[in-house]
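User: Let's play a game. I give you a shape written as tokens, and you guess the letters that built it. Ready? Here's round one.
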């Protein structure tokens, strides 16, 4: 059981039509555009181009123009700089960054929008140096499929969890199937159907994510009529034997359920409070590999869910993603989520209670959404 708790420069096809200070300003704009775009991941750049093509900012950038001129970071920056007046180019960039979302990059442009060009503040480099084709990263250019199960009955706040998870999946460009308040037979049938569907599109799929939100106990989900479903049985459905479509592809499980009845009241410390911030031989694989499983609490402990704002873990995921976007490897992302959860005070029936997320991973590459 869960515990409830302005005027611009004229531009042409070859860049600005003015000289001197105007050219210098255009070059500065171009530099800043490229510097910002360089902070985006390959997946974020693909999404950036897609959003730019749909943006209702005149003159619109056509998909053909994007394809011909915006294939590289330098090309995309130059396209923005010459297609729009400087103030419009900055506004367009900000609008697209807000939709990614990469709101952490917006402060770099506030001064430009308000007062014209300013010296940009130094940007923190991303925590990885991953490019398309990098063997250290999973290739997520294919389809991303997700399964979302939630028991809403007798779980106040669960509706909020569903809303937040769907929002997060949309941002990360997942196609997803929902399964709400199923019994054991329905859940296993839907998971089997989802898994079989992945095997049918083996060459198209790049990853899968399964979110399971319900009551629970150690090793089990508790769903309709208190039926128990083994998590190990669910994990086995997607292993390399039963789901060859996902061999060497990330299989991510987000489990929002209790793992027992124990409660951690925490301990007092003397520390200062922290701020939140084609091959001749077939390759063999382990039966279980490329899994990433996240639990909302330690084994044998309760998970926390607020009747109004929803589950603690799901809410923290949303807040961290809204603030930082998808700039981190998934393990780093959930480490940041855990930092927020661990250093937040919670109370259950007026009793202080502490929780910490638990991650289990057999990933062999980095995962960037």
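Assistant: Ready! My guess for every position:
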């Amino acid at each position: 059981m869960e515990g409830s708790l302005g005027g611009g420069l004229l531009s042409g096809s070859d860049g600005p039509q003015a000289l001197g200070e105007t050219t210098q300003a255009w070059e500065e704009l171009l530099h800043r555009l490229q510097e910002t775009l360089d902070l985006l991941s390959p997946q974020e750049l693909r999404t950036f181009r897609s959003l730019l093509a749909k943006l209702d900012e005149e003159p619109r950038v056509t998909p053909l123009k994007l394809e011909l001129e915006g294939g590289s970071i330098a090309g995309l920056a130059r396209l923005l700089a010459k297609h729009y007046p400087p103030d419009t180019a900055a506004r367009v960039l900000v609008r697209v960054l807000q939709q990614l979302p990469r709101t952490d990059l917006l402060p770099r442009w506030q001064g430009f929008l308000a007062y014209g060009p300013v010296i940009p503040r130094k940007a923190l480099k991303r925590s990885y140096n991953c490019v398309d084709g990098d063997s250290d990263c999973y290739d997520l250019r294919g389809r991303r499929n997700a399964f979302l199960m939630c028991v809403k009955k007798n779980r106040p706040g669960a509706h909020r969890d569903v809303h937040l998870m769907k929002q997060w999946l949309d941002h990360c460009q997942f196609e997803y199937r929902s399964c709400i308040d199923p019994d054991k037979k329905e859940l296993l049938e839907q998971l089997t159907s989802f898994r079989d569907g992945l095997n049918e599109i083996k060459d198209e799929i790049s990853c899968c994510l399964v979110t399971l939100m319900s009551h629970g106990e150690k090793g089990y989900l508790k769903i309709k009529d208190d039926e128990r479903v083994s998590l190990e049985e669910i994990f086995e459905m997607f292993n390399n034997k039963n789901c060859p479509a996902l061999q060497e592809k990330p299989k991510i499980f987000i489990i929002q359920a209790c793992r027992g009845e124990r409660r951690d009241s925490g301990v007092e410390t003397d520390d200062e409070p922290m701020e939140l911030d084609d091959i001749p031989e077939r390759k063999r694989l382990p039966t279980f590999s490329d899994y990433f499983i996240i639990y909302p609490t330690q084994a044998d402990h309760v998970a926390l869910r607020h009747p109004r704002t929803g589950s603690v873990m799901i809410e923290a995921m949303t807040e961290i993603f809204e603030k930082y976007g998808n700039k981190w490897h998934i393990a780093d992302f959930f480490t940041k989520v855990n930092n927020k959860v661990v250093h937040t005070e919670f109370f259950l029936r007026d009793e202080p209670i502490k929780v910490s997320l638990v991650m289990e991973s057999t990933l062999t590459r980095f995962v960037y959404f």
